[in-house]
Fold:
Amino acid sequence: MVSTFPLASTVNLKNVRLEIRALQPQLVEWRRQIHQKPELGFREKITAEFIAQKLQNWGITHQTGIAETGIVAIIKGEKPGHDKVLAIRADMDALPIQEENEVAYCSQHNGVMHACGHDGHTAIALGTAYYLNQHRQDFSGTVKIIFQPAEESPGGAKPMIAAGVLKNPDVDAIIGLHLWNNLPLGTVGVRPGALMAAVELFRCTIFGKGGHGAMPHQTVDSVVVAAQIVNALQTIVSRNVNPIDSAVVTVGELHAGTAVNVIADTARMSGTVRYFNPDLAGFFKERIQQIIGGICQSHGANYDLDYTHLYPPVINDVGITALVHSVAEAVIETPIGIVPECQTMGGEDMSFFLQEVPGCYFFLGSANSEKKLNYPHHHPRFDFDETALPMGVEMFVRCMEKFLA
Structure:
């Protein structure tokens, strides 16, 4: 479990306007309906239908079927003024995890679970759409609400951008939030610059020469080669990366061999690379290939390396982050409040949106240890304090009001 911050079991919502506080029952209902029917990336058909039905009922202009299951809602203010456009992004996919929570709204889909808070993100975005639609007369400009598929994998942001979600009308800035069980209820984690890390993946097969365990001189031991590679990869961060630049190289899988007295002819490994500095893009692939190639050559082995650049780092714009920070100061009133040192080596494809337009992605604290709602993300018992839902709507609404003012 995480989140040992000494907060009470509830937070004061006095800075959340009454009309948004009144949405709490609907926000919880929407979140739990989505939670019960989780769907994996690009398969979010039930979720998309649920969202589209709500938007249709409220008379909100929207487009469906973007990048398979994505949706974009457009809400135009009726107040005379400028034509600036703010986008709000929410992801809606689930994870291939069997839920272990014993709650009435537990997942009804075997082996699939909302274990990262995307059900909450979708509910917050729906609540924001509902509120803004009721208050069109109070703002000028346009708000685009992007319901994105497949954040967990293989990534829905890039195909949505390719489909033109940031165009017609052109988006001037974008914001998004992540319910965050690494922070307690009643906090916001927001900082300019790098918030989340780039995500890169590698898979490598070592081809040696198998043989009898008692006669290693007749073989090329793929296990020995793989072991040396695993150790050598750890020198990349410790000896090739500037110590000021945080980075991680992790080998998460290593498979070889079938018997105790047989030297394996092949070994397979896979892992992940994480870093914040965009200037390091491309560096790790080259260095990993050099290390693997050199060690294999020294042992007479061959290799096949598959390297994937999944997501770039999440880099927040200074100006939009300052706006979000000022809104958080107005909304959040707890002993901790704003948490600027909230970086994580986790990755997010919100990064692709932030490469296109200035924006800010921030964390909304959602853990509550007193209610045992503090299991980490991607855990089969993950859940969050739903008091955070109206706080998320309030954050989005105030950001919109300030940006479009």
